[in-house]
């Protein structure tokens, strides 16, 4: 269960954000949408503990995230929160499979090749596992990013515009995949987007202004 | 895992990596090679002056006298009358004296005439055959045997002078009667006959004078007019070192005395200046490589900011990112050091081969100087550390959110 209370953040006196409170149960999907500059990405970064809010609280189950500090915070994030960015960032010097194993190691301190292979097979990119990530197509990279997000069985999955660069068919596949995976893992899924297609299929939507 | 990732990152740009490692290795290689060559040189030179307090020979450069009489790598300064030399060789201050007469050479290996004291001086033992007994019999050093494939009973014609291509003495045939065991000293590349053969071949028909093994180390009476090239002297007591040079200088004007230890030290210090200059150059190259490694890491750091922020997002701590970048610098220096070590040893081998072919100086296998190598490794690690520490600190303070937001 993800919950926020009275989150506030400002970059400058001209750019202040008072975010509406959010609740997202386990296995549920929440869409956060809004215009450019409405603070969508900032909110996502706050939820992912990449940025600290200036006021308010973020609760994941019973843990108050903004009370965590330093390497404890990094560790908690690695273990329980996965973030899929709009632009995909992989470690370019190592293979797709190694990128997943690295995520396992960073998040949980273990490397399980079987789990990684299973996930790659499920996402239909197992045959690309030895390639460097940048050699894959956009759609394939998207799936690797999703695989990496799921590999540590997180409690919270955050996705920033995961479908904006995809055509209708692929956008639907990705949305389906994320939603099903979150449901399977019993994780909360928060998608930040201005993609109208995603809004059509969801009831749980928060509009930022 | 961090080391593995650092390794992958370095070789993600293989040309950069190879360039950095080669520059680094050049510095290490030069230093390693220089010290091997220098130690080998000093070892060779010092080993050969053991037991020689003074060298007596014709006037000229004292260094030349030492280089020619002890090492046979320079032309002799001239000859001295046997009569004059013997006066001092028999002097009570002298414990032993090894007379040498230079004559011919065989395929650029020097031949000298001496007596049994020469073998005793170098502690040489026969590997096969017997010591030379009569005129035109020779005993051959181990290196000569190895290079020229000589064996007991072989016959050859010699060439006048020490250089190849001199006039061949066709009417004289030398016979190999003995082969020496290796000593690691200059005798290994000598061909030794009795002195009388040298006199005889150059037209002074003296008596044939047999030398028996284990003979008393003092010369015998000889006729007037004969000459020898140099004498290696060993003093009987420390008083001799004080008295004798003065006596000889006063009484024998044509005779020069040179002290090997002093001359060789002079040679080393002259060489040392040159070697030091090259060594400083090597350290300078290592400094350059530090800059080159720094630039490589720093440049890729800019491109990799997202990657590092991603590592943080995936749960990597600040310290992990810091040690990743630091490891890259350290790995560069370790690879550079190891490559340099190989380069240095290979370079030394090449110098050794060159020395062997050009000067008949055989360099042996020397173990690496552990203290020096430990120091070089420490310097290497420090350079790697220095090159990577600032990028590493920069990566430690990465702002994840803003790095990932500004594309």
3D structure, described in words:
The complex is a heterodimer of chains A (209) and B (407). The model of chain A has no long low-confidence stretch (mean pLDDT 88). Chain A contains seven helices and ten strands. Chain A is 37% helix and 23% strand. In chain A, strands 1, 2, 3, 5 and 6 form a five-stranded antiparallel beta sheet that branches. Chain A has a five-stranded parallel beta sheet with strand order 7-8-9-4-10, sandwiched between helices. Chain B is 55% helix and 15% strand. In chain B, β3 and β4 form a beta hairpin. Chain B starts with a helix and ends with a helix. Classes of the chains: A alpha/beta (209), B alpha+beta (407). The interface between A and B is medium-sized, with 29 and 26 residues.
Radius of gyration of chain A: 17 Å
What is the H level of CATH, i.e. the homologous superfamily of chain A? P-loop containing nucleotide triphosphate hydrolases
* Strands of chain B, count: 13
Q: Which ranges of chain A are low-confidence, i.e. pLDDT below 50, for 5 or more consecutive residues? A: none
Mean pLDDT of chain B: 85
Percent helix of chain A, as a range, is 25-40%
The tally of domains of chain B stands at: 2
Please give the number of β-strands of chain A.
Answer: 10
- Structural class label of chain A: alpha/beta
Q: Give a short account of the largest sheet of chain A.
A: 5 strands, antiparallel
**Major beta-sheet overview of chain B:** 11 strands, mixed
* H/I helix tally of chain A: 7
**CA(first)-CA(last) distance of chain A:** 24 Å
| Most extensive protein-chain contact, per-chain counts | A-B, 29 and 26 residues
For this structure, the CATH topology of chain A is: Rossmann fold
Flag low-confidence runs of chain B.
204-222
Tell me the series of helices and strands of chain A, N- to C-terminal: EEEEHEEHEHHHEHEHE
* Amino- and carboxy-terminal Cα gap of chain B: 28 Å
